[in-house]
Amino acid sequence: MGNAKGATIMDIKNIDIYNLPKWFSDIIEEVDILCEEALRSSVSYSRITEERYKILDKHDFISKLTDDGGVDEPMELTARETKALSRFFTLEYDKARAESIQMYLLGCSHIFKLLRALEEI
Asked: At the top level of its lineage, which domain of life is listed (predicted)?
């Protein structure tokens, strides 16, 4: 496949996700919204997010740990607080995993739509 004179080909290996072109950022933002909408109907994802918020409400020290620049000095945690923190991070992992899987599934769906459209050409 040829490309226009002076145009560069985007190599997927070299994409800097922190410095995306505007058009690509717009697509990612739209896909993020679709992902959030799909996850809202998931019972297991809702359980994860509800439990996560309950832990944050009950243990405000966790917000300090997860916010940028929130910890200025050492913290001593009780066994109960340590257990809550461990559970919170487990939920964070589960939440991120569900979001990644949903994003992957949306990508697969988009590829199938693209392939069907290309068959019609």
From this structure: Bacteria
64-95 burial by CB neighbour count: b if 16+ within 10 A, else e? eeeeeeeeeeeeeeeeeeeebbeebeebeebb
Q: Which of 39, 12, 53, 41 is nearest to 96 (CA)?
A: 39
d(CA 95, CA 2): 42
Tokens of 116: 């069907």
- One-letter amino acid at 96 equals A
User: Torsion angle of alpha carbons 14, 17, 22, 26, nearest 10°?
Assistant: 130
